[in-house]
Batch of 2 targets.
Target 1
Amino acid sequence: MNKKIVSFVLLACMVICAFVTSFSGVFAQNEASAPKYIFLFVGDGMSYPQFQTASDYLGQLQESDDILSGGIPLSFMEFPIAGSATTFDSTSFAPDSASTATSFATGHKTYSGIINMDESKTIPYETIAEKLKKQLNYKVGIITSVNLNHATPAAFYAHQPSRGNYYEIGEELVASGFEFFGGGAMISPTGKEKDKKDIYEVMVEGGYKVVKTYAEANAVTAADEKVVIIGETLADSNALSYELDRAENEWSLADYVRKGIEVINNETGFFMMVEGGKIDWACHANDAGATIGDTIALDDAVKVASEFAAQHPEDTLILVTGDHETGGLSIGFAGTRYDTYLQNLASQKITYARYDVDYVEKYIENKTSFDEAMVDVAELFGLTLPANAASAAQPTLVLTNSEVADLENAFNLSINGGTGDRKSYQEYLMYGGYEPFSITINHILNNKSGLSFTSYSHTGLPVAVFAQGNGEDLFKGYYDNTDIYFKLAELTGVN
């Protein structure tokens, strides 16, 4: 009897040892195969309509004889894995950037407007970036084309009951200890009441090298250890310029990614989040030309990561997704029926934001006439009055009489101080909160191109999730945006 018990115990021990050995082997294998270098690209406001429109636009630029040959895919559209993620939050099917970024940064849903806290605004959530830094000693880089304390970048280092707590978010940026930040200027750098210590001084006291010129940025190296690069040339809301407005000497989003890699590249590993934030801003303003430009700019930044991945194919994972869709962009417009003329958007030389500042403000100041303003519109957007079409120096988009009437009405509203700021339901539907003349130009050019928008706000469309590299297979299928966090945690083994 004792022999049987001893034999049973020995057998049980052998089974347990075999199981432990097998489990340890699997754990070691997973640990060895975890990606050391992780890139997460977020097109703010970017869903299927935005990148498909950009692809179709590039394709139509090359087509001839009215034969449709299809779009030219952006590089991330050719990644081996394409999944989809739902975007709803605890508030709405049409969520905001704070809650959606919280979802894929922490795996939790919350209300719109909250950053990395629960619905009661009392429990903070640790982010994937914070966990990778604390548990695996990864270096972290955060890059955006908008302000560094805006909702999406903040969702990787901050924990606030309101996305509007800009100064407090800035303090958390410093406390994060993340090694690289690059993008637009900080909002409210001295607080809401302008009575706080300048946040850039706080950064320096926290050990950061703060850089605000291209010359200084070019000189930055990994030896600087912790760096904040603010764009030397800032545009609307002190963000980086739209790609359509960007001068040749201005850094592109791709340039920030290239410099970020230089600073945080190391043998242990890194995590980099890159936001194309002005895709969202362009869609809010229904500016299809600006939307396409910044979507392509995001893809150019992805290409820099792909170049890095080619040198580290076994160790790199690249993800490209969006936080939500903005504007309700549609490839198709009732007025053109089934036809699209996306090549018309090549006539646009300037975004709505720069046109407002460089032209509309001067029209108001100088009491410019409608006919005089339309000379600029023809040059910058290709939209030409019927009477001027014959004498135009280049091919133009001739306006119909009803389009001229809409433009003239909007122009008069702008000149007389009418901002379209929800003065009436009908006026809001026509202009949103934007300058009536500028947004009417956008709408007409969009429609002549075969595009339309349904909203000046966010929508409830799912977003794509493209993946390439180590762990790519996990991102197949249709899932919730919180699963992006859980998939990254599973791959890297963080708690």
Note: Confidence is low (pLDDT under 50) at residues 6-32.
Target 2
Amino acid sequence: MIPGFGKMFIIIGILFIIIGLAFILSDKIPFIGRLPGDIHIKKENFSFYFPITTSIIISIILTLLFSIFKK
């Protein structure tokens, strides 16, 4: 067996659970995707949405989680 392989599977499983819960609860969290700084351009036949602020916050949260689990 590869050392640390089981621990890696547990961490991946926990991440999948967190991502799944985020998808389930995303409608109930009103501010996700509608933060100041998110870009939303709407024209007649065109709509563009880029959630830059939401992406940055999710990136910070994931960085903190990965640094916690790395130790």
Note: The longest helix spans residues 5-25.
